[in-house]
Write a structure and sequence with these properties.
By secondary structure, the protein is α+β, with helices and mostly antiparallel strands. The protein has one helix and two strands, in the order H-E-E. The protein has one helix spanning 2-30, and strands spanning 41-45, 66-71. Strands 1-2 form a two-stranded antiparallel ribbon. It is elongated and about 60 Å long.
Length: 86
């Protein structure tokens, strides 16, 4: 009984690993990183804006989900972030 369970567990783990590899491959085929230049106009998702920019008294449910178009003022490496100025 235990050996049957261990075999099924190993089979399931193998299938999960193969499925993850296929999903990663499909994502990598379709995903393209967008490079922005200074001066490009972009839309910013509201959840990424700071509280200084957002009106605290406004109802989040009824607020717009995107703000923009806003101009790109600086370009950073992919792992860097900077707060937006109001």
């Amino acid at each position: 009984m235990a050996s049957k369970f261990a075999a099924q567990l190993e089979d399931a783990q193998t299938k999960i690993h193969l499925a993850q590899q296929r999903q990663r491959l499909q994502f990598d085929l379709r995903h393209h990183v967008k490079a922005f230049q200074v001066g490009d106009l972009v839309w910013v998702e509201a959840e990424h804006l700071t509280e200084r920019i957002m009106n605290r008294e406004s109802c989040r449910k009824l607020s717009p989900r995107w703000h923009g178009p806003l101009p790109v003022t600086e370009v950073f490496l992919s792992d860097q972030q900077k707060e937006l100025r109001s």
